[in-house]
Write a structure and sequence with these properties.
The structure is a single chain. The chain is an alpha+beta fold. It has seven domains: about 40 residues; about 60 residues, Nucleic acid-binding proteins (OB fold (Dihydrolipoamide Acetyltransferase, E2P), Beta Barrel); about 80 residues, OB fold (Dihydrolipoamide Acetyltransferase, E2P), CATH 2.40.50; about 70 residues, Beta Barrel (OB fold (Dihydrolipoamide Acetyltransferase, E2P)), CATH 2.40.50.140; about 90 residues, Nucleic acid-binding proteins (OB fold (Dihydrolipoamide Acetyltransferase, E2P)), CATH 2.40.50.140; about 80 residues, OB fold (Dihydrolipoamide Acetyltransferase, E2P) (Beta Barrel); about 100 residues, Nucleic acid-binding proteins (OB fold (Dihydrolipoamide Acetyltransferase, E2P), Beta Barrel). It is built from nine helices and 30 strands. Helix 1 runs antiparallel to helix 2. The longest helix has 26 residues. Keywords: Ribonucleoprotein, Ribosomal protein. InterPro entries: NA-bd_OB-fold (IPR012340), Ribos_protein_bS1-like (IPR050437), Ribosomal_protein_S1-like (IPR035104), S1_domain (IPR003029). Belongs to the bacterial ribosomal protein bS1 family.
Length: about 575
């Protein structure tokens, strides 16, 4: 408007210019004045257009309210024409008045030049501009919860934008009751951060959790800066596992391992702790890089071993309760000294060596009486024994089972290395498989015996300290190989019986039943030897250490056969041969 006034002023000034009458030429004035006015109009139009705002649809402008009518508001935006806004857009702003400056958006321009403006859409554009700025600068904004939708909440931010807050972004901890939270929070404001914005789809995602996590991170840094081993702090139990409990130290998590909960033996942390329980803990260790904090509870109180009576010593009898049973023994909590446990090894429970599992003799929570075997106050270790309360049967047993004595007993069990023989209560003897037979190579004792069989034995070794009796079965008879070397000389002739045919030859039982020889396949095929056939043979190899004899069948005349059989029968009792057997 200022530009128009200045132009009018210039026109009037030009029209009032003093011209002498004698110099005035009307015809010249009429012709020239028309041209001059045209030039002035063009000048005025150019000057006016130069000072006007260049208007396009969707432009965001600032204007002044000039009129408030019944259904619309007139706004001057420094253009040829004033713009109008429906009054309905101001229903929430009833205190507007002429002269107020407001933001408007150009919606459209009518054919006569009239501008249709929108104050509401201008505010939305401004809100989006502010939202982008807040997102880029990571600023904190406020929002009002106005509704709920699938997966989260609808939040009004910056007055004009409806944003989405996922359920996972509401709180640092998962909500236990989403419905209750919405009911309590409806129409209430909360601080938020914009974590995602899509200008094309006009989508905004906000988070309250992000602010909480920032506060937690700040608290973490402050807490970690003041953190040191030995410091006692308050903590809240948040989660209990088999191996310990996770605690909240005020935004920072720490772990109490189950072995650091109590000086007493516990099977599970839930025996002592509950979720949401507030406890005192001591910082044991922490890793600043990984934000891992190791906590302890039992370290706050004195160690139970500090209360152990100074008069207690090795050899004393004590009572206690079985607290744990393992493969190798049991742990006993000493009576009147809570938290002090001693090991009762399975080998110290009974003199009976058949007892190999602690659970076969004791039970959890059972009260037992024991003798202290070892006591180390510095290492805080104690071992106990139960069998020491009774007499050791091995003290009196050596006279009953001296080396060389023979005993017939029942086979109790098999082992990988032999058989266990029951002698009497708490006493067993061991027969190694190498002592079961002089001539058979045995892989397992079950090849010769069954559990429950009677077996003849002789005591080979008695070890009082190791409480071990070694016995033999083959030693009941003399070792046939002790005299075989003199009898079965290479080149000598003997009788034998084919007892087994093998892939590589045959096994032949010689005159002594415990002595067997091997006949190679090539001579076996030549002589057409069959199983159980009685033969004459010649010794071609003798290996005493290997206990191996190799033979070859031979043919004798009838007269030589009779002489040989007669010679054998004079030396020992053998099965009677007939000429038919050898033919």
């Amino acid at each position: 408007m200022y530009v128009q006034a200045e132009i009018r002023k210039n026109i009037i000034a030009d029209s009032n210019a003093n011209v002498p009458l004698e110099e005035f030429d009307w015809s010249d004035y009429c012709g020239n004045n028309v041209k001059k006015e045209e030039r002035e109009r063009e000048k005025i139009s150019a000057l006016y257009n130069e000072h006007l705002t260049n208007i396009n649809e969707y432009d965001l402008l600032r204007g002044k309210i000039t009129k408030i009518l019944d259904k619309e508001i007139v706004v001057d935006i420094n253009f040829k024409y004033e713009g109008i806004i429906p009054l309905s857009e101001f229903r929430d702003h009833l205190n507007i008045k002429v002269g107020d400056l407001i933001y408007v958006m150009v919606e459209k321009r009518e054919y006569k030049g009239q501008l249709i403006l929108s104050h509401r859409k201008a505010n939305i554009l401004l809100a989006w501009k502010r939202a982008k700025e807040a997102y880029n600068k990571k600023e904190i904004i406020t929002g009002k919860i106005i509704g709920r939708t699938k997966g989260g909440l609808i939040v009004k931010i910056l007055t004009h934008i409806e944003a989405f807050m996922p359920g996972s972004q509401i709180s640092h901890n998962p909500l236990s009751d989403f419905d209750a939270f919405f009911t309590d929070s409806y129409n209430k404001t909360m601080e938020l951060k914009i974590i995602k914005i899509n200008d094309k789809l006009k989508n905004v995602v906000v988070s309250h959790k992000a602010l909480i996590e920032e506060d937690i991170e700040k608290q973490k840094k402050e807490f970690m800066a003041d953190l040191k081993p030995g410091k006692v702090v308050l903590a809240t139990v948040k989660n209990i596992t088999n191996y310990g409990a996770f605690c909240d130290l005020g935004g920072i998590n720490g772990l109490i391992h189950h072995t650091d909960i109590s000086w007493k033996r516990i099977n599970h942390p839930s025996e002592v702790l509950k979720v949401n329980q507030e406890i005192k803990v001591v910082i044991l260790n922490f890793n600043e890089e990984k934000n891992r904090i190791q906590l302890g509870m039992k370290q706050i109180v004195s160690h139970p071993w500090n209360s152990l009576n100074e008069n207690i010593k090795v050899g004393d009898r004590v009572k206690g309760q079985i607290k744990a049973i393992t493969e190798y023994g049991a742990f006993v909590e000493i009576e009147n000294f809570t938290g002090i446990e001693a090991l009762l090894h399975v080998s110290e429970m009974s003199w009976d060596k058949r007892l190999r599992r602690a659970k076969d003799l004791v039970k959890i929570d059972e009260t037992v009486e024991c003798v202290i075997l070892t006591l180390d106050r510095n290492e805080r270790k104690m071992s106990l024994g139960m069998k020491q309360l009774t007499h050791d049967p091995w003290i009196y047993i050596q006279k009953k089972y001296p080396v060389g004595s023979k005993h017939t007993r029942i086979i109790r069990s098999f082992t990988n290395y032999g058989v266990s023989v029951y002698l009497e209560k708490g006493i067993e003897g061991m027969v190694y498989k190498s002592d079961l037979s002089w001539d058979k190579k045995i892989k397992h004792a079950s090849e010769l015996f069954k559990i429950g069989d009677s077996i003849e034995t002789v005591v080979l070794e008695f070890n009082q300290n190791k409480k071990r009796i070694i016995m033999g079965h083959k030693q009941i008879n003399k070792n046939p190989w002790e005299y075989s070397e003199k009898k079965y000389i290479v080149g000598s002739v003997h009788t034998g019986k084919v007892i087994d045919l093998l892939e590589k030859g045959a096994t032949v039982q010689l005159e002594d039943k415990n002595v067997k020889a091997f006949m190679p396949l090539h001579v076996l095929e030549q002589e057409n030897v069959k199983k159980y056939k009685q033969i004459f043979c010649k010794i071609i190899e003798f290996h005493n250490k290997l206990r191996k004899i190799v033979i070859s069948p031979i043919s004798l005349s009838k007269e030589e056969e009779k002489k040989h059989i007669k010679k054998i029968t004079k030396k020992q009792h053998v099965d009677k041969f007939t000429l038919g057997d050898l033919g």
